Amino acid sequence: xxxxxxxxxxxxxxxxxxxxxxxxxxxxxxNGQIMPEHEAFTPLFVYFxxxxxxxxxxxPVEDIIQKSNIxxxxxxxxxxxxxxxxxASVFCxxxxxxxxxxxxxxxxxxxxxxxxxxxxxEAYRVTMEALAMVSGKLQKGTEGITIGMENVNKANxxx
Length: 159
Prior knowledge:
The chain is mainly α. It has a domain of 52 residues. The protein is 69% helix and 0% strand. α1 crosses α2. The radius of gyration is 46 Å and the shape is elongated.
């Protein structure tokens, strides 16, 4: 009997028992002759048996209907508040559209600073300074690339 109860308990914990096997387990735990190794499971089966005996009752239908018919006050906006909200929203839209569609005179009036040089030697000197500045900037940009390429060549990846 002990081996059969152990097998039934294993199947019960796995959820594989049939109704008849569960009834065998329930009757085993209700008869009072429980093996010491199974005493830990007794409260569970006793609980199931007690819960089966409980009866639940609902309140009368009239009480449920009466409680459901209680009306809650509906909060409505008065016409004064509706008009105030409408005016406020229109005001916000007008202000937002004013800033959004405002013509910006700043972008139209910005002009570049042009300095005309009449002396050809002075123009040559200014041009050479500008080209030297651009050359220096390009040289700084290519230094990082050359260092990176030297590291790649050291690694012999492309050979």
